[in-house]
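S.,

Sequence below, as promised.
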Amino acid sequence: MSPADSTADAPRPAYRRLGDSGLKVSPACLGTMNFGPPGTAGVGCCDEAEATRLVHAFLDAGHNIVDTANGYTDGESERILGRALKGRREEVVLATKAFLPQGPGPNDRGLSRAHLTRALDASLRRLGTDHVDLYQCHQWDAETPIEETMATLDGFVRAGKVRYLGCSNFTAAQIVEAQWAAERVGGTRFVALQPPYSLLDRGIEEEILPTCERHGLGTLVYSPLGSGLLTGRYAPGTDPEPDSRFGRLFRSGLAGARNWAQNFFTERNFRIADGVAAVARELGTTPASVALAWAGRRPGVTSVIIGPRSTAQLTENLRALSLDLPPDALTALDTLSTPDHP
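The prediction came back faster than expected:
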C-alpha cells in the first residue's frame, strides 16, 4: 500500500459548521504554504508532483478545506493548488488570503479597495477558478478604513467571486470593529478567523476565542506544532537540521530571521516540548500526534491547519486528529502549557 493510499485508513471526518454560517468544513485544513520552491520567508520546498498527491490524498480521506494565500511562495502556491484541483474543484472549500505586497507600488499591498480588487482577480487567475469559497484578510490594515475594506469584500460576495469572508491574525478588538463596520455598510460579516494556536502559544484563549464565539466566527488555527518545535526535532544548544523550517530560516539571509528563530528556542518552549514527548512515549505515539490531538479538541477550534510535506506526514497528521488523549495526559499538558506557568 502506498502512503497516498494509506490515508483511506484514517477515520472519516465529522464536518463542523464554520462560525455562524451554514458552510461545513472538515476538522483538518490542508495548508499549502509549503507548495513550491523556497519563497521569500524560506518556506516552500514541496514540489508540484508531491503537492498534487497531497491534495488528492487529503480529499480522498474525506477532508475538504484547503488554505493558501497570494503571498505564499510568491504566488506559486496558488498556481500549483489550482492545477492540483483540476477536475475536483467542487469537492473543495477553497480558501485564500490577501494583504501582503504584490509589487513595488504604494497600492500593491493592504486592504484598500484598489489593492483587494486587483489581488482577488490575480488569485482567481492563478487558482484557475471563478470564485473562492473563503476570502480572508491576511492581517489588519491600519492605513485603510475598515468600512472601505468590508464594503469592498461585500462587493466580491455580491458579484459571486467570493462565497464567505474571514480574517487572519486579527485581535479581539479588530474582529469587533470589522463586524460592526460590516453592519454599518450593510455588508457581509466575517465567519472565520485564522489565528496561531498551539501548546506553545495559547494567547487566543483569553479574549480572541470568546470574541469569535460572540461574533459568529469559527477558527482555522495554524502552527499547531509550534513551528515544528513540538515534533521533538530540535534540541537546545544545537543548530537545526538544514531541511527543517528553522534550518531554512537560518539559511534564508532574511534580516532578523536567525534572531527570531533563536529567540523561539526558549527554555519554556523546550520544557513544553519535552512534556509533549513524555506524553507521546506513554501513549506509544509521536509528539506531533499529541500536539495535533490537543489542538483539535480544544474548545472554540473548528479546524486545524496542517502543513505536511509528504503523504506519509499527511497520513500521520490525519490519524492524530482522531487520537483520544486520556484525562491525565490532558491535565499534564494543560498545566505545563498554561501561559502563566513559571
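The chain is about 40% helix and 15% strand.

Coffee later?
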